[in-house]
Amino acid sequence: MSDRPRAVVLLSGGVDSATAAALTAREGFTLYALSLAYGQRHAAELDAARRVARALGVARHEVLTLDLRAFGGSALTADIAVPKDRAPAEMGADIPVTYVPARNTIFLAVALGWAEVLEARDIVIGVNVLDASGYPDCRPEFIEAFERVAAVATKAGVEGHPVRIRTPLIRMTKAEIIRAGTAAGVDFSLTLSCYDPSGDGAACGRCDACALRRRGFAEAGMADPTRYR
After folding, report:
1. Tens digit of pLDDT for each residue in 39-67?
2. Is residue 96 part of a domain?
3. Which domain CATH number covers 124?
4. Is residue 228 part of a domain?
5. Residue 170 located in a structural domain
6. How far apart are CA 98 and CA 59, in angstroms?
7. Residue 166 belongs to what domain range?
8. What is the DSSP string of 84-148?
9. What tens digit of pLDDT does each residue of 190-204 get?
10. Structural domain tally of the chain?
11. C-alpha span between 7 and 168 (Å, rounded)
12. 227 falls within a domain
């Protein structure tokens, strides 16, 4: 068995999670990728996550089903229109309807359970605050609070082996993330960022996620390999 440290990586199939995973692998970790089929309208992201996991050569990739459509409350989990063609200033002005209530809390809790079983001391999530669309669960104070919860709520934490929540992209712009991912060998043509892709996986090109992605590639001075409809 490998003596490399293990890390559970939340892998959505987008630019950020793919880059966070690649950077973690480059640091010498064995990756255990976790994706969630949470009832999202953009289930094509799970296909992207599988592509990225294969490309990264993860030790194991779990796709767990947890259908948040039972609750709704978001344009990604209910029949609510995804905002399109918003100006950059609008994106960070409020918490948009694409916010899924407590999603990162739920995802990290699931990752924490798997990390305990694997005896992994690290969980990786690709959140960042500079290009986030106003999501409260992408902020450093949330990550710090969850880390404190993990330390007191788990056997590993009580026994003196608390899990660390790694956020390698937390202070990066999208352009910086794309440059870092490229340097780490990420093939961004495998990724999907769109909130509202077509049935064949083509990105809409007009939602907030597409706008941030397009701007990121432009600012990085690189061609965007996304297939837009």
Report:
1. 998 889 999 999 999 999 999 999 999 99
2. yes
3. 3.40.50.620
4. no
5. yes
6. 32
7. 6-220
8. -S--HHHHTTS--TTPPTTHHHHHHHHHHHHHHHHT--EEE----SSS--S-GGGSHHHHHHHHH
9. 999 999 999 889 999
10. 1
11. 13
12. no
